[in-house]
Amino acid sequence: MARDPRYDILFEPVKIGPVTAPNRFYQVPHCNVLGHARPRAEAANRAVKAEGGWGVICTQEVEIHPSAELAPYVEGRLWDDRDIPQHRLMTDAVHEHGALAGIELCYNGFHAPNLYSRIAPMAPSAMPVHGLNPAQARAMSKRDIADLRRWHVEAAKRSRQAGYDIVYVYAGHNMTLLQHFLKPQYNQRSDEYGGSLENRVRLTREVLLDVKEAVGQDCAVAFRFATDELIGPDGLQAESEGRDIVAMLAEIPDLWDVNISDWSNDSSSARFEPNEGYQEPYTAFVKTLTSKPVVGVGRFTSADAMVSQIKRGVLDLIGAARPSIADPFLPSKIDAGRIDEIRECIGCNICVAQDMLAAPIRCTQNPTQGEEWKQGWHPERIDTAASDDAVLVVGAGPAGLECALQLANRGYAVTLAEATETLGGRVSRESELPGMSSYARVRDYRENLLRQKPNVEIYLGNRLGAEEVVDLGIPHVLVATGSSWRRDGVGRQHAFPLAGIEALNILTPDDIMHGVPLGGRVLIYDDDHYFMGSTLAELCRNQGHDVCLVTPESRVSVWTENTLEQGKIQARVLSLGVVVICSHQLVELVEGEATIANVYRADLQQRLPFDSLLMVTSRYPQDELYQALLAFEDRFKTLRSIGDCNAPGTVAAAVYDGHSAARYLESGQDYYAPLFAREIPALD
Ligand code: ADP
Ligand code: SF4
Hints:
Layout: E1 14-16, E2 19-21, E3 25-27, H1 39-51, E4 56-63, E5 76-77, H2 84-96, E6 100-106, E7 122-123, E8 127-128, E9 136-139, H3 142-162, E10 166-171, H4 177-182, H5 197-215, E11 220-228, H6 241-249, E12 255-260, H7 263-266, H8 280-283, H9 286-289, E13 294-296, H10 303-311, E14 317-320, H11 322-326, H12 330-335, H13 350-356, E15 390-394, H14 398-410, E16 413-417, H15 426-430, H16 440-451, E17 456-459, H17 466-472, E18 476-479, E19 483-485, E20 506-507, H18 509-513, E21 521-526, H19 531-542, E22 546-550, H20 566-575, E23 579-581, E24 584-590, E25 593-598, E26 605-609, E27 612-616, E28 619-621, H21 624-629, E29 638-641, H22 651-663
Helix pairs in contact: 1-2, 2-3, 3-5, 5-6, 14-16, 14-22
């Protein structure tokens, strides 16, 4: 297939100062927590995107000095010359595929608690450090300011030695010192670096000019800037100072990389920003104030939306972090006319969660993400089948679909049996919940490809029992039959079912998703802490029920702190009129009434009347088929339970497990991944 001429514009080269991007696909800086601890994995992770056609590939934040280091998070590091060789790995790998390499130099100021270096953090004015660390940052002296400028210059020179083509100056995400200087909330200085906007911009201007001089004639300087913080006059706004700053610095950088702040707004989940290009209202003005190219993001996955951004003069380069994570080959697929093979990001922010947890990147849609070096996985290539054996996959949720697709890609003859009349399992059900429609992409991408494969047979409405599976005589069987929500309240808080609960009419998320009607007053008990409890609260309110959500945790959907959604979720359920009771657990249940107690003081109790009680606590693996098949284990070369049937978890975990099972099919009953590659510090 050939590229649709409508998309030719996306493949035009773009001049960025003295360098030229080969096309308009630009992987903006994003974290992956491989970084300085895992440099080979870092290089391989970035290289695969260059191979997939992204014209510019950037690092994550790169610390330039130990006085702003991000432990326990693992980002990039360029403190001195000894850090250069690991950056070389990345730039060489990216250049090999004809892409430009960019480095995001970063000084985090009071956002870096310096848990490793133990140096007191710095800020424009004395203030508490970010987060809840019991520490404060000290106000910077003139000497500190001179040091900061020198550190940027030294890091810029090292970046050149490491082979980067674009060097960043970074004032965004509310995370960097230069942005802190721009904001009156943090900058209360009375010298020439504080007060008027001209003064607050001074340091950024100086650093930009310093870095430009330091990088020389053949390297570009990008300025990453958040035009708006979405907190009204309490922060920078695109309509006032955000705009003025762009006007003041317009022609200094070679490239404007613009977005919105803080990170939860920039990387908004699909639940809160369902549409592509959601940053346009805040960043479109930038191109009217500068002649330099502008890159911006907005979870772009469709070629038409990208073309529209260029043609309407909103952006010159299509920036992407998450869409490049979900599909490193997105540009190549557009180029080859294979649009319907793009693995579109679903905006779940599981990738972000890994960063928040200081663990290497993973992705719901792309199970190979972060595994490029560690397990040698490639997003578009997989070993061919080792035999002519047939394979049976039972259950077509995320695990079964991914497993079947990859086995088919390998060339195996695949039979996929699904009990219901639709593919997708949990994602088909959950995508009907408020704010969750993008999860259907997990199914749609895989279903589309599976239906085109001549070596795949799909049987819908086919609930298999153990004897039928044995009778099929297929040597490899992967059981992906999923999980179901528990009705008995057992979860993190309750190890045993509550007394008398079996006599009551308790509802679960599965019931709601199957359309079981609810009474007027709904009580939701959330001991799961991910999206389900709050999503169902939203659904029930939308249906007009009175809703009370009780959780043993101190906040609603507390794990979504990691997906940058928690604050938005709590705000939304409160605005919808959901009554939220945190730090409480169920202690007694009778028909129509629950008694809850404070988790710290069992004697602080209250009674809550309800018509329907909805338990969101934990799930049972639905593994009856697998357990029954174990009696016939010697009839199979492979018998494995995968995904939620093995251990209920995230959709990302199920997709990964399905993928892994397909890659390692031949390891038979010993199915754990072959020992993966590790980066071990050299003891020289
Ligand atoms: P996962 O997240 O692990 O993929 P899901 O719960 O999303 O799990 O999907 C499991 C799928 O398996 C569901 O679509 C379910 O209908 C199907 N299923 C369950 N039991 C059987 C069975 N015995 N035969 C065929 N399909 C089954
Ligand atoms: Fe997109 Fe989710 Fe993958 Fe992140 S983890 S890139 S949000 S699909």
